[in-house]
Amino acid sequence: MLTIGAHLSASKGYTHMLEEALSIGANTFQFFTRNPRGGKAKEIDEEDVKTFLQKVEENNFGRILAHAPYTLNCCSAKEETRQFAIETFADDLRRMEYTPNMMYNFHPGSHVGQGEETGIMLICDALNKVLFPEMTTDVLLETMAGKGTEMGRSFEEIRAIIDGVELKDKMGVCLDTCHVNDAGYDIVNNLEEVLEQFDKIIGIDRLKALHINDSKNPLGAHKDRHEKIGEGYIGTETFEKIVNNKYLKNLPMFLETPNDLDGYAKEIALLRGLAK
Question: Does the annotation count 16 as an active-site position?
Fold first, then answer.
């Protein structure tokens, strides 16, 4: 059975997100740790967390994925922006321990003209400051579309970042189908070859989660505009291959398509129906 969910609002707490996920046929979910544009996170409600963890066990629920705010840029040219990212990252990882053994996903950031090498160095420096040996969370680098000076546009960049992290056992990758398409990886015609390339460069064991999104743009557009499943350039046939692929079918999958709850329910049912 697929482990699949969608991005949900965290405003009413963990238990509400789990119940909302179950209502749309999901058995996992993704959420922002705080306002996606940054700011202070809401205080953790320990009773809510306790109920949530109990319901996770009762419903055989999959690992959830927390998403860092978009403003977190570990490789900014501005020191104050980098410091904000490090403080936010560290706070998020501390809060993640309330829900042990889950996942935390972040965009590597934009080097804003400093160059890829400097970007990689700064991202590694931030990760080496915030990761700690006792943490139970997997920290995932998201594959990006490569718009502007965005980092993480290639498997080589992702690998270079992991290579520079001291606590490598805490690191993984979240592959976004829209982003890799827009970055130039032809998952429509050559899914197996792309995964072989991923395995050769990064290692398939590092792949911990999938963002399941169609794309409004063709291969290599470097635009990053998500589309509903089957309504973009990736298409339903490719998602059928994804949900049945030996490397991917057992990974937790998260929809970030432009949808409401009913739309997510239909997409989850569609993807489950494609699984053989």
Answer: no
Pick the catalytic residue: 20, 138, 142, 150?
A: 142
CA atoms 162, 179, 250, 31: torsion sign? positive
Determine the pLDDT at residue 86.
97
214 is catalytic: no
Residue tagged active-site, from 20, 150, 224, 227: 224
What are the CA-CA distances from residue 110 to residues 118, 207, 219, 260 (Å)? 11, 22, 21, 30
DSSP letter assigned to residue 152: -
Would you call 16 helix, strand, or coil by DSSP? Answer: helix
pLDDT at 36: 78
Q: What is the pLDDT of residues 113-147, one digit of tens each?
A: 999 999 999 999 999 999 999 999 999 999 999 99
Catalytic one among 176, 182, 227, 267? 176
Residues 4-21: b if buried by 16+ CB within 10 A, e if exposed? bbbbbebeebbbbbbebb
What's the whole-model pTM score?
Answer: 0.97
Q: Which of 47, 70, 193, 205 is catalytic?
A: 70
- Note if 7 is an active site residue: no
